[in-house]
Each structure stands twice: as C-alpha cells, then as structure tokens.
C-alpha cells in the first residue's frame, strides 16, 4: 500500500453538484429572507457561530419546526453547562418524522443474515407505529416513562422507537451482542417500565439464543411491567418464560383506521438515553433532548450529509452505537433509511458492497476500520459491483487515514464525495463533518459543522490553527446532554466535559484545524504517545503500521514508569499466513521512524491474535494501558462492553512480566 500525503487534493465537486446541494439552497434562502449573503462556506460557518441565536433561529424557521407553544427565546444563556434551548416551546420528534411522508414511497429498506431484503412504505411504517402506540398506551406508557429495547438493527426497532417517542416516553436501546451484565448495567440505572427483546440473532453465520439473557435482564429490572418479544431468530419463538410478555404480532396488530397521537413535550425534555462505552465502570447514561436532537439532526443530515427525499441512506451500525440514532434521523429528511443486521465480512467482505448495489444506495456510511480492512483485503468494489447510484461514502469511529481516502477513489468510484466525520455519543452527532460544496483533501475532515463553535486549544487554553490541540466547544450546542441520568447535582456531567477548561466543553480528542478550515483528528488525547516531550496521536502510529502489508491491525500504548520516562509497546495482529519475523519488525520500525519520528519507535513489538475492542469497534487503548500499569483488569474494563473479551487475557499475562521491566 503506497503512502498518500496528508492534505493532497483528491476531489472537487462539479458545478451541477454544487447547485443541487442543500447548503446552497439554504444560502439562497438566507439571501432572500434574511438579506444575508455568504460567498463561501467559511463565511457561513463564521456567522453561524458568531451569531449563534440568529443561526439556530433560522434553522427553526427553515425546517418549519412544529411547536404547540411559541418559544420565549432561542438560548437562555451562553453558560455551559446549564443553558436551555428554545424554552417555552413544546414539540414532538415523531411528528416531524411523519409530517411530510408520501404513503407509497419507500421509508425503510432492511435486510439481515436472517432476512432477505425488503422495502417498507411510509404508509406501512405509519400504520405499524399507530398499532404499537395503541398497545403502549394500554400498558400505561406515558410522558417520561423509560422504554428499554434489547433489539438489533431491524425494522421493528424503528417502529418501537417512533411509537415510544410519539408518546413523549424515553427510549434506550442495547444491542443483543452486548454481554448480559453490560445490558443490566445500562438498563438498571434508568428503571424502565417496558422492555422490547428479541429471541436471538444471527451473526457471521452463527445463531445466538438470547431468551435466557432476556430472562436474566428481567430479573434485574423490578420496575418492568411488561415485555414485548420480537421473534427474530425463530419465527415461532416461545416467550412464555418471560414475565408479562406478549409477542410483537399481538402488540403491533395493525389498525389501518387509527391515527398517531403526538404528545407534545418541552423542547428540553428527554428523547432518549445513550451510554458511554462503559469500558471502565458502569456506562454513563447520557440524556438528549427531543428538541436538541431534532434540530441538530435536521441540520447535520440536510446540510452536511446533503440528504434529499430521493436519497437512500445507509450506515453500518448496531443499536448500541449512536450512529443508529443518527441513521433514524435520516427519516426527518424524507429520505429512505437502509438497515443491515449481520457481519460486514460474512460470507465475505463483499457483502456490504453487494448490499449497496442491491439497494441502489446513495450514501454508504461505515467505519474507518472497515474501509481500511477492505483496502488491506485488496477489494475493488467499483469493478465487482454496480455502484451507479452511490454518491457519498462517509466514515467515522476512528480517523480515516489518507490512504483510505485514496483507496475509495481508486477502487470504489472516481467521482465520489468522501466525508470523514467526527463527533460522539456525547452529542449524538458530528462536530466536524462533510460538505458537498467543498473539496476533499486526503486525511482531512472537510469542515467544522454549522453552529458548532469548535476550536483546537493548547495547554494554556488558547485557540490554535495548524497545531494539534484539544478539541473544545466554546459555545453551547443543541444536542449536548441535558443531563446524565441519576446525576442530580450535575457533578458527573461537569467532570466529564467541563473540568479541564471551566465553562468550555472539552471532548477528549486531539484536533488540528488547518488554515483552509479543514480538520484532522489524531485520536483520543488521553491516548497520546509522548516521547521526549514530542506528543503525537496513536492514529499516526497506526497509519504508519498500516503501510506494512503483513500487518492486519495494531494497538500501541504509552506506559509511564517510575523514572519519569515511559515504554511504548506495540501489539500487532498479523495477516493470515504471515508471522512477526525480525524483518517485519524492522520494517515496522522503519515506517514509524520515517513517518512519525525516531523517538516514537516502539520499545517492543509483540504479535497477538486479536485487538481488544468495544462492541462499537473502538480499540481499548486506555484500559490496556492501565492493565500494563498494574491495575486489575476487572476494575478498568467492563467485560460486557467488549466484542472479544478473551483478547484481554494476553494483556493480563503480559502485564505480569511487563511490570518487572518498568
């Protein structure tokens, strides 16, 4: 794999694409209705953050937000945390999903390892939501009640969420591939009144029975009054062992004559509860507001993903990752949401590219690691599949290296818009993302999002351009958490985001903002590799190691010692059929010396079978670092949050020997 220089211009949008872009339609609207004229994206962004209230008020007007009562002001204050958006307004998220639907148009396309591809019309989605809402009413679900979902990324999950949100109840989901205790740790904190569950699922060609797990979860949730079972693995699944359970077929019996009731709630009332990854201790329950999510997702998906009614929007995700919530948000734009449940590599790595062809997908959302995996697997999707309709590839989860950008142009499609985006569960959106009117530079995220006052701060709290610093938000943002569940004085929320720079959101990522306004993410700032006072992000090391063809994946940590120095062991997973020989070690070191610096050459390179990752695919850099520093694994890692907990055993054993060398 050849190295691509960061910042290399790879693509520029043609005039036709610019003219069709929703961003330009918004600029035209501002000119006509607000007498505001912006020559380029940079000036539009500057106005959106300098005149914060005015910008977000135009979002309200542009998207015609429906409110039962008028709002008193846009922003109660600029103080963080604690500010309130559009106080006085009363809205319903689900109403905005259904308000412009065209009955016979396709709302959702879904498929899985268990189900063939199927299309669902807006009329069916609406009628199924009405039917389920009636059942939820019968169970006494109302505003403020919590509804937990132990469901995969399937059609029924969308219906369950919309029915919940329509009543002003609070949604919270966990993927069935989560460990039993991990689900209990999440749901027990929020005391749900009702739970949805599947009987099982299929992944990588293997079946996983989840009814015994659902039983265990029920036992730990004394507040549960009812459970609705979705027969997914087995169409005739028996849910009788669960208490107060009915099947989906009973609960969602369609009544075509019914209408959906919308419970209006204050703009700042909860919509859903998401969770931090929970790699250390219990996951933090992050609460987002109905209005904040509605407004931010409309903005991000309309202007930065450029979604229109004719689009077919896909993101490979589970219900345990915020990208599922973002995917659901695409329904707000009237576009078609595409769901897939199953392994992205079964029966082979072509499965999602074939799915893109079969669904006439226009936007392909995935992780940077998936693109890197396809690149290392030498796939050529543009040659093996008909991707005529595909116009955008978006990625998140970790930084997409410049070579990943280049691979998309070389092997997928020459004229395609690549958007690497970065944000997080904390805000359920991206801060830095794409724009269809801007050029694409290798390794760079195209722009800071409209209305997001994003800066890169040095250690003195000064904003910097062209230098790597802490990613911060210096002004309020609508989809910031309204609070953490069971955090009455707000101390956990404060300590999570506001204890580094008082009154300023510190996200925990390393960011460089370039002179042209693009951004480069260098990984988590607490996973920085600091050698001799020179700090670089772990993503830079991974990029260098990725150049070594024999290596499949890698993980590096910087472990301080008692002398004030540190060790930087590098762990590598080798491609099938290859071994970590001395020649390969030397090649890895050479790449790191040349592409990072001689100081960042690992103190040791070790071959392992697997990299420990969360269920969302993120590498466990910090927990591994703590294990190597001598901390007990059960205190620094929530095993239920891992996709491959057996991979940690290597590091636990390695730590025993490693401690003697520090």
Which helices and strands appear, and what pairs or packs with what?
Blueprint: E1 9-11, H1 15-20, H2 22-34, H3 41-50, H4 52-62, E2 90-91, H5 93-98, E3 106-112, E4 118-121, H6 122-138, E5 146-150, H7 155-166, E6 170-174, H8 180-190, E7 194-198, E8 200-203, E9 206-209, H9 211-219, E10 226-230, E11 245-247, H10 248-251, E12 265-266, E13 270-275, E14 285-289, H11 290-304, E15 312-315, H12 322-329, E16 336-341, H13 351-359, E17 363-367, H14 368-376, H15 381-384, E18 392-396, H16 402-412, E19 417-420, E20 422-424, E21 429-433, E22 440-441, E23 447-448, E24 454-457, E25 468-473, E26 483-484, H17 491-497, E27 505-513, E28 519-524, E29 529-531, E30 534-536, H18 538-546, E31 551-556, E32 559-560, E33 566-567, E34 569-574, H19 582-595, E35 604-608, H20 621-628, H21 633-636, H22 648-661
Parallel strand pairs: 3-16, 5-6, 5-7, 7-10, 10-11, 15-16, 15-17, 17-18, 18-19, 34-35
Antiparallel strand pairs: 1-22, 2-12, 3-4, 8-9, 13-14, 14-26, 20-21, 21-23, 24-25, 25-27, 27-28, 29-30, 31-34, 32-33
């Amino acid at each position: 794999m050849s190295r691509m220089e960061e910042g290399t211009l790879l693509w520029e949008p043609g005039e036709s694409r610019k003219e069709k872009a929703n961003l330009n339609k918004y600029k035209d609207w501002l000119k006509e209705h607000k007498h505001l004229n912006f020559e380029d994206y940079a000036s539009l962004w500057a106005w959106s953050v300098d005149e914060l209230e005015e910008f977000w008020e135009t979002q309200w007007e542009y998207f015609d937000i429906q409110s039962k009562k008028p709002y008193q002001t846009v922003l109660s204050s600029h103080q963080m945390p604690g500010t309130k958006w559009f106080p006085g307004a009363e809205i319903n998220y689900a109403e905005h999903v259904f308000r412009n639907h065209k009955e016979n148009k396709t709302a959702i396309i879904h498929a899985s390892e268990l189900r063939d591809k199927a299309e669902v019309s807006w009329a069916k989605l609406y009628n199924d939501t009405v039917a389920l809402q009636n059942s939820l009413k019968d169970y006494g679900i109302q505003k403020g009640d919590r509804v937990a979902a132990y469901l995969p990324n399937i059609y029924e999950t969308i219906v369950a969420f919309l029915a919940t949100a329509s009543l002003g109840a609070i949604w919270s989901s966990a993927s069935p591939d989560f460990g039993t205790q991990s689900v209990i740790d999440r749901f027990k904190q929020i005391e749900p009144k009702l739970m949805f569950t599947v009987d099982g699922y299929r992944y990588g060609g293997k079946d996983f029975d989840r009814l015994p797990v659902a039983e265990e979860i029920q036992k730990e949730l004394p507040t549960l009054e009812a459970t609705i079972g979705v027969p997914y693995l087995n169409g005739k699944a028996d849910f009788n062992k669960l208490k107060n359970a009915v099947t989906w077929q009973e609960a969602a019996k369609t009544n075509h004559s019914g209408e959906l009731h919308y419970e209006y709630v204050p703009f700042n009332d909860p919509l859903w509860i998401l969770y931090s990854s929970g790699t250390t201790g219990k996951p933090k329950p992050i609460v987002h507001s109905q209005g904040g999510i509605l407004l931010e997702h409309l903005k991000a998906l309309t202007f930065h993903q450029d979604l229109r009614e004719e689009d077919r929007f896909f993101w490979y995700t589970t219900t345990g990752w915020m990208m599922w919530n973002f995917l659901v948000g695409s329904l707000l734009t009237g576009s078609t949401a595409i769901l897939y449940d199953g392994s992205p590599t079964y029966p082979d790595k072509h499965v999602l590219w074939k799915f893109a062809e079969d669904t006439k997908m226009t936007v392909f959302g995935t992780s940077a690691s998936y693109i890197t995996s396809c690149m290392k697997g030498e796939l050529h999707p543009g040659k093996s599949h008909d991707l005529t309709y595909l116009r955008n590839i978006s990625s998140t989860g970790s930084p997409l290296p410049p070579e990943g950008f280049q691979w998309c142009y070389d092997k997928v499609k020459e004229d395609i818009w690549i958007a690497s985006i970065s944000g997080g569960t904390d805000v359920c959106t991206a801060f830095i993302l794409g724009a269809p009117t801007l050029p694409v530079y290798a390794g760079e995220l195209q722009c800071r999002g409209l209305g997001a006052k994003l800066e890169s701060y040095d250690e003195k709290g000064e904003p910097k351009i062209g230098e790597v610093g802490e990613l911060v938000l210096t002004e309020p943002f609508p989809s910031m958490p309204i609070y953490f569940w069971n955090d009455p004085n707000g101390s956990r929320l404060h300590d999570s985001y506001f204890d580094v720079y008082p009154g300023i959101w510190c996200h925990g990522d390393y960011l460089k903002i370039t002179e042209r306004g693009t951004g480069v993410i260098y990984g988590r700032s607490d996973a920085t590799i600091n050698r001799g006072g020179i700090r670089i992000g772990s993503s830079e090391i991974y990029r260098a190691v990725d150049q070594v063809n024999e290596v499949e994946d890698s993980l590096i940590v910087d472990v301080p010692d008692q002398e004030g120095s540190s060790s930087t062991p590098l762990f590598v997973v080798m491609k099938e059929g290859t071994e970590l020989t001395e020649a390969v070690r030397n090649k890895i070191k050479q790449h790191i010396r040349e592409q990072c610096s001689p100081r960042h050459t690992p103190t040791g390179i070790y071959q392992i079978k697997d990299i420990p990752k969360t269920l969302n695919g993120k590498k466990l850099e910090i927990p591994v670092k703590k294990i190597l520093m001598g901390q007990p694994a059960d205190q620094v890692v929530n095993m239920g949050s891992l996709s491959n907990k057996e991979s940690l055993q290597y590091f636990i054993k390695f730590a025993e020997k490693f401690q003697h060398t520090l």
